[in-house]
Design a protein that fits this description.
The complex is a heterodimer.
Chain A lengths: L5 E6 L11 H9 L4 E7 L5 H14 L3 E6 L2 H14 L7 E5 L1 H5 L5 H19 L8 E4 L4 E4 L3 H12 L4 E4 L14 E2 L4 E2 H14 L3 E4 L3 E8 L2 E7 L12 E5 L1 E4 L3 E3 L16 E3 H10 L12 E8 L14 H15 L4 E6 L9 H10 L3 E4 L7 E4 L8 E6 L6 E6 L1 E6 L1 E3 L3 H8 L26 E3 L9 H21 L1 E4 L4 E3 L9 H5 L5 E4 L4 E4 L9 H5 L5 E3 L4 H12 L4
Parallel strand pairs in A: 1-2, 1-3, 3-4, 6-7, 6-14, 7-10, 14-25, 16-23, 17-18, 17-23, 18-19
Antiparallel strand pairs in A: 5-26, 8-9, 11-12, 12-13, 15-24, 20-21, 21-22, 27-30, 28-29
Helix pairs in contact in A: 1-5, 2-3, 5-15, 6-7, 6-12, 9-10
Chain B lengths: L2 E2 L4 H6 L14 H5 L11 H8 L3 H4 L4 H4 L5 H5 L6 H16 L4 H7 L1 H26 L14 H33 L8 H5 L3 H8 L1 H6 L10 H21 L1 H5 L6 H27 L10 H25 L3 H21 L7 H22 L12
Helix pairs in contact in B: 3-7, 7-8, 8-9, 9-18, 10-19, 12-19, 14-16, 16-17, 17-18
Chain lengths: ~575, ~375
Amino acid sequence: MNNCRTGVYICSCGTNIAKIVDVDAVVSFAAGLPDVVLARTYKYMCSNPGQEMITQDIRENHLDRVVVAACSPNMHERTFRTALKSACLNQYLLEMANIREQCSWVHTDPIEATEKAKALVHAAICRVRLHESLDSISVRMCPNVLVIGGGIAGMTAALELADAGNTVYLVEKDDHLGGNLARVDLTAPYLYSATDLLTERITRILDSEKVNVFLASKVTELTGFIGNFKATIQSPNVKLAAYNKPVEVEIGNVVVCTGYKEFDASRIIHYGYGKLPNVITSFELEKMIRTGRIETKEGKIPGYVAIIHCVGSRSQEFHTYCSRVCCMTALKYAQEIKSAIPGCYISDVYIDMHAFGKGHEDFYRRSSEAKTLFLMYEKGDRPVIHKASPKDDCEMLIEVNEKLSGELIEIPADLIILMVGMEAREDSHEIARIVNISQDKDGWFIESHPKLEPVATTTDGIFIAGTCVAPKDIPDTVAQSRAAAARILGRIAKGRIEVDALYSEVNEDKCSGCRFCNQLCPFSAIEFDKEKGHSHIISALCKGCGVCVAACPSSAIRGRHFTDEQLLAQIDGLFYDYG
Amino acid sequence: MPIRVDPKFIDVLDHYGAEDVQLCYQCGDCSTVCPHADEIYKFPRKSMRLLQMGLSQKIETTLEPWLCYYCGQCSTQCPREADPGETMMSLRRWLISRYDFTGIAALFFKSRRIEILSVLFISLLTGIFLGYYGFSGGSVHIYDGEGAFLPSTFIHQFDLMVGAILAVFLVVNAIHMWYLVMIKGTTFSVPWWLYLKELYQLPWHFFTQKRYSECEKKHKHPFFMPWFIHLGLMLGYVTMLVIVMVFIEELQAGPEIHWPVHIFGYLATIGLLSGTIYFIRKRLKKNYVQYKKSHGTDWVFVTLLFIIVLTGIFQHVFHRTGLFELANITYVFHLMVVVPWLLRMPFTKWAHLIYRPMAMYLAAIRRDAIIRQKVVTDPYLVLIK
């Protein structure tokens, strides 16, 4: 083993680390270890002076390995890699020891914690010795984009990308564009017409030479990796292709905007949906409003209308989440019905009024001013709908424990509107499989980071936007679509993309061609080369997770930056007897 | 059994002045600032809720509207500008019409035209009757004694007759109120002796209006407190009523002043005059929340009272200065306002003279009964006012 020159940096993280771990003791311990040229401590290593200290030390002391004992590498590995880079040292010659999350934050005994910190630092020093200089790989970025879903989200993303001069393939499963928004009349809270919002977009898309629209079509396969995907589209309407013959397109990125479907109200037996003719869903009311006549099935003008919130949402039996748009939509109905039928009395039966968005609180107030009767029910204590007796002046009665008055009441109603919530589409599982992204317990697609990466996924090059991620309203949906488009445009502008050097490699001489790894790879990054008879890892697609490394019966796969030797050295370092 | 919600009720209450009730989202700020709300009598929040839901069959059995003296703090605090103070006022108006078995009160509250026409009608009828009586038996030049235009003995009988009509309506309505509150609205048993124990509440609240004074924290000097002015007005009114009903002969005798009777008359006049001027001024200026929204019936009430006081003063002055003809004519005009005013009483705001002390009395009895039996009326709302 060559002698290397290691610099060790112990961060105090303010008092986060220093209040439990005796950082000075760790520094003097590290300074005495072989190959360690210097060891230092600093209040905040991640701060600019902290980074400059590392850069300067590398230059002045000719360091060729760096160990930073601080927080989780998730937090600041990138920061310290940049510090190495700016000192012209390969960024992979860094190792971090996590003495915050895995030490100072979880221990209370300072002596033991300091010993653990020493062990972690020692392990890192032992490991970093074996680190190799690795180069990131750079791949071509195909400027074409595939957008799945032709609703407001998909169309917005498609236009944003096409306007920047890129070819977009827009695949829509229905025979028309517009998605769920096309079923809506006016939008809350500013009462813009949904048709107006859509028409302009649809016309522009159909006129655009850059957007290729595939209606009544499906994406059946997606192969390749970021910048170099190949998608197969099953479409009946492509002029050039023979009928029903799939089309193959080359793309660099994918935006998934597959939207939602409404909750099936007949699943809640209390509401008698499907049995009582005048219990309708919000979408059925939208249809009535668009035809211009709100009436019961018998053709009568309703004297009492009741709106029930949270149908399928916020309940233990169905969906625990809030569908976010129903409260405002319900208020919109209250106002629309009152202005269409001034003599009609509207009861709004809700659990909580979620009026959190811009203009929503004012909208709520306006519905109160329209004399809507708001009645609150307890979550889990659902209202029950009965048919009224002939001597009542209404068709139906809703029985409910009213929370604000504490009374058991019955609400007269001729027409009952169920505010059906949003749920993930049945085919979302298939989409997730095709584009290789994950879903949460409710079927929504999972973002790479819920706060910092809301439109990216764990698969590079696949973006998600709109209500396929979670229930959201139109402004949020449009914002996400544009965000996804902006992310893609940024990458297209670069022309090429850097891929992390942490991928695995197959030693072709050792590979027996058993293809175990092909099936195990969670990123579909392993191909089988039939001619040569062994597996091959597409480095751009590989995330370096190491599943194949562990699984390979011939030990033919090596995980770069996570080699067996490196890991064993780290373990040895951890269990070294300090005496 | 569930109670039927009546979304239409809110429109009915519109006529009584409750316009912004549906804005309320039940935050409970109003009940927190209210000096009178407590664990047993929860208002205005709960009254607002019952009204929003149109539970009229519940509201008619509640006493809460009478426990509010409209200091206006709740309306000032309300984050939704739902005006709980005015709502309580409207509920009092509605309760007056509910206690009234004739339906006249409801008509008056709903239609200003009917109210004014009926006042004019009774007024004309009184004028014709008194004019006919005066000219057929007496002389317009004589004010009192032998051959008087309107002899005091006749007026005395006339007063007692009007008083009797008034009393019948009031007593029947008060019994109706008692029935609604204590029989229909009370699900727990109330021992009879509680009625005796709390009997002192009736005169106490009638003569002191103690709770009204507890409302007024913002006025430093008692002289400027609406409570003080209101008390003066009310005591003046009651004193005058007693003088007119019992001592009319002494009151009308003259022209020399009978101090043992007239001193009370003067004091009552001061109370009435300052009271009416004060409240007319407040209602015109509208700088306090409780005087911002004057219902039509409020104006009829205070204006008629002001005319009565003025004509009464003129009549007294004319008589004492020897202008008997003028005194007699003013007397007719005075009675032309007094009679419709008195007959209007049981159907209007004035009836709170009876209902308020009655409500305090019944509220105290109910409170005792509830505490005695530890009856929790409402499991949800015990902790919230």
